[in-house]
Write a structure and sequence with these properties.
Distance between the termini: 39 Å
Number of strands: 11
Number of helices: 3
Order of helices and strands: EEEHHEEEEEEHEE
Radius of gyration: 19 Å
Structural class: alpha+beta
Shape: globular
Helix content: 10-25%
């Protein structure tokens, strides 16, 4: 199962552009929240994050866009970053059925640098990053972005060995 990116809308008011996209992602909101509201998550599909203070008015530095503030923060639902040179970027999450998430995206910016096609490519990358890995039988083998647990040398095995008492 894969996500979809619906046709976006764009408005222009003088030199200010506002782009809206609706992205359907076949993952739980919690998984998508981690992808849009943590340095590791954003770095996996969008841009490296040098600073992110996860709270309203917290400092944020998105490497490819600039430094600014978190201008909206509702844990598990809304993350909005306003950065110099990059404008205002808002991720608003809603449940979409039992296992899906609807991402309402808004980017308000000055100039002509951003485009709908650029954001579509980013969201295709996000959907790819969040898709669960499939094993050879077609079954989901691990949660997106996580490796199966492995025993480290010197550690007790997580599963009993054959013939081992538990």
């Amino acid at each position: 199962m894969s996500g979809s990116i619906e046709q976006g809308t764009s408005q222009t008011h003088g030199n200010t552009h506002i782009l809206h996209l609706l992205v359907r992602i076949p993952r739980h909101m919690e998984d998508v929240w981690a992808a849009v509201a943590t340095p590791e998550g954003l770095g996996g599909w969008f841009t490296a994050v040098d600073v992110l203070e996860p709270r309203l008015d917290g400092l944020v530095t998105l490497r490819d866009l600039g430094t600014g503030r978190i201008t909206a923060w509702d844990v598990d639902r809304v993350a909005e970053y306003t950065v110099e040179g990059g404008g205002r970027i808002r991720f608003h999450l809603e449940r979409d059925g039992d296992k899906g998430c609807l991402l309402r995206f808004t980017h308000e910016f000055q100039g002509e640098e951003e485009s709908e096609s650029g954001w579509r490519a980013r969201f295709e990358q996000l959907i790819a990053v969040l898709e669960p890995a499939q094993d050879l039988s077609g079954q989901e083998s691990a949660q997106a972005g996580q490796e199966p647990a492995q025993d480290l040398p010197g550690q007790e095995p997580s599963e009993p060995l054959p013939g081992q008492f538990t």
